[in-house]
TrEMBL record:
GO biological process, one term: bacterial-type flagellum-dependent cell motility
Source superkingdom: Bacteria
Record's protein name: Flagellar hook-associated protein 2
Domain Flagellar hook-associated protein 2 C-terminal: 216-437
The keyword Secreted is assigned to this record: yes
Function noted in UniProt: Required for morphogenesis and for the elongation of the flagellar filament by facilitating polymerization of the flagellin monomers at the tip of growing filament. Forms a capping structure, which prevents flagellin subunits (transported through the central channel of the flagellum) from leaking out without polymerization at the distal end.
Flagellar hook-associated protein 2 N-terminal domain location: 11-104
Locations listed in the record: Secreted; Bacterial flagellum
One GO term describing the cellular component: bacterial-type flagellum hook
Keywords (A to Z) from UniProt: Bacterial flagellum, Cell projection, Cilium, Coiled coil, Flagellum, Secreted
Similarity comment text for this entry: Belongs to the FliD family.
């Protein structure tokens, strides 16, 4: 029996449509696996959110666990003449600053000018020597045929020239203008010369003599009456561990004190990170009774373990060597809903009066871990390669791999079944087509016999 390539042609039946319906019905067997894979993918995404929230809490705990945080100093200023920044070497104290002069850059313009900056000023290759206040001379190579613009560009291209060059028009011609790259008297440009024939006309050499010179100056200031000079306006270690940024002439007061703001931000940062984590776990494990909608990790044991471990740390006692024993002693309370709240007045009182005790509570004392170290360790264990969170992610990934293999096997089974249906339908189509042909032939024969019988009569 011949094979019919297009189902239904021989029989006139809609076998293709029927085969499509059977194929769709068979593929429905794949739907449960697809839903399971999607569920596991959703869990992996949810665990990623949990992992991110835990990482932020770990970072906040790490900040609180640093002993340097509680010994850090800040510098504040009153007045507009200076800005100040303190490092770990600074010492608490107050300082009266009087800025008498700011450090300036030296400038120099050539004493003569050319009518066009594109006119040649150096017929031969030569060196230009730049002189400075008390610093060493610098040399710049000038190529043959250089114009005033070329001289400018050669100076600017040389990182060691010590000056920036430009061209100015004084109304009668174009002059070479130089500005020291650094402030201070030693770095101030004071002159320039050439060892060749650098001229702006046939008999007029390009010279600094007679030019406009503004000498650079050192900054001058007093700190508590002690005179200080500086080549630049950023003065380091005039006050130990403090950098002064001179802004203008005048008087200012610099106060160096414990940086309570940094500690406060670290404490509130921990509270915010903990509450963000609490909000994240709440969403992931939520259940809406009205809609029946559940969070991605509703009922998941990993989340319950995370929440339980954190409650034990947060509700536990502090370091035995600290004056504080619980978070509530420093103004942090555990609310009924599991979140943390801050009593700002109580925390500020602790920060201003007993910062060492706060350091002992969070960072530990006498080689004993403080609250922050225990929290950091607990979260670190959860996030480790063998920890509960990564373990849950790995389990979900393994289930996806297993489901994927099951899906492939099921899909192959479906394809074989559909192929078998196609073969059977093709055979049916051929059989019906043959039967139709036989029926048509017999009908013709019967019609012929009938006509013959009628003719005899």
């Amino acid at each position: 029996m011949g094979t019919i390539s297009s189902l239904g042609i021989g029989s006139g039946l809609d076998l293709n449509g029927l085969l499509d319906q059977l194929k769709d019905a068979e593929r429905e067997k794949l739907a449960p696996i697809e839903r399971q894979i999607k569920t596991e993918d959703t869990k992996i995404t949810a665990f990623g959110q949990l992992k991110g929230a835990l990482s932020k809490l770990q970072d906040a705990a790490e900040t609180l666990n640093s002993g340097d945080l509680y010994s850090s100093l800040s510098a504040s200023t009153s007045g507009d003449s200076v800005g100040a920044a303190a490092d770990k070497n600074a010492m608490p104290g107050g300082y009266q600053i009087n800025v008498e002069t700011l450090a300036t850059r030296g400038t120099l313009a050539s004493g003569n000018s050319t009518g066009d900056p594109t006119d040649e000023v150096a017929a031969s290759a030569q060196e230009m020597t730049l002189s400075f206040g008390s610093g060493p001379d610098k040399t710049v190579a000038i190529e043959a045929g250089s114009t005033l613009e070329d001289v400018r560009d050669a100076i600017n291209a040389d990182e060691e020239s010590g000056v920036n060059a430009s061209i100015i028009n004084d109304g009668t011609g174009y002059r070479l203008a130089l500005s020291s790259r650094e402030t201070g008297a030693d770095a101030s440009i004071s002159g320039f010369s050439f060892d060749g024939d650098a001229t702006i006309s046939a008999d007029d050499a390009l010279v600094a003599d007679g030019g406009t010179l503004q000498a650079g100056t050192d900054a001058s200031l007093t700190v508590n009456g002690i005179g200080i000079t500086s080549a630049n306006n950023q003065v380091e270690d005039a006050i130990q561990g403090v950098t002064l940024n001179l802004k203008e002439e005048g008087e200012s007061t610099v106060t160096v004190e414990q940086d309570t703001l940094a500690v406060r931000e670290a404490v509130t940062g921990f509270v915010d990170a903990y509450n963000d984590l609490k909000e994240t776990t709440g969403k992931l494990t939520s259940f809406n009774a009205e809609t029946g909608q559940a969070g991605e990790l509703n009922g998941d044991s990993t989340v319950r373990m995370v929440e339980s471990s954190l409650r034990n740390v947060v509700g536990g006692m502090g370091n035995a060597g600290s004056d504080f024993s619980m978070l509530s002693d420093i103004g942090i309370s555990l609310e009924v809903d599991g979140s943390l709240s801050v009593d700002s007045d109580k925390l500020d009182d602790v920060l201003s009066s007993d910062q060492q005790a706060l350091s002992d509570f969070f960072a530990g004392v006498d080689d004993s871990d403080g609250f922050a170290a225990r929290l950091e360790g607990s979260v670190g264990q959860m996030l480790s390669d063998n920890g509960s969170v990564n373990g849950a992610i790995s389990s979900a990934e393994n289930r996806i791999d297993s489901l994927g293999q099951r899906y492939d096997r099921m899909e192959q089974s479906v394809d074989r079944t559909v192929a078998r249906y196609r073969t059977q339908f093709s055979q049916l189509d051929g059989m019906v087509a043959q039967m139709n042909q036989t029926s048509s032939y017999l009908t013709q024969q019967f019609d012929a016999l009938s006509q013959m019988s009628s003719g005899k009569n």
